Amino acid sequence: MPTANPIKRSNWIAIVVVVLVFGAVVVVAKTSRQPFSDPQFAVKAAQGSLAEVELGWLAAHKGQSETVRAFGERMATDHTKSKAKLEKIAAQQNISLPEDLDKDAQKNYEKLSKLNGPDFDRSYALEK
Known about the structure:
Elements: H1 9-31, H2 38-62, H3 66-92, H4 103-113, H5 117-127
Helix pairs in contact: 1-3, 2-3, 2-4
């Protein structure tokens, strides 16, 4: 049955991505022994966005299925925007943000970049 205000599939994907990223930040924050300071939170958020941008562009270019390519492009685009907003706020607060992937994200990027076809699609999906 159609709803009065149907949400486009791309909007649903964006909502799911935001929920997943927020959930990941909450998990990290809850498993930390000490609460994050504002600079620590900004650095962690920047690391996550940077990883999503790099992995998203990788998926947009290496994905076999159109769904993986489209999702990767959406992740890269959305996280580029959120990273830009974070960078603006961080600059106002004199917070230095990372410009390179952290070790785990770099390792994941290198692993995925060696895969092709359905192996890439499957591994990328499992990382999400």
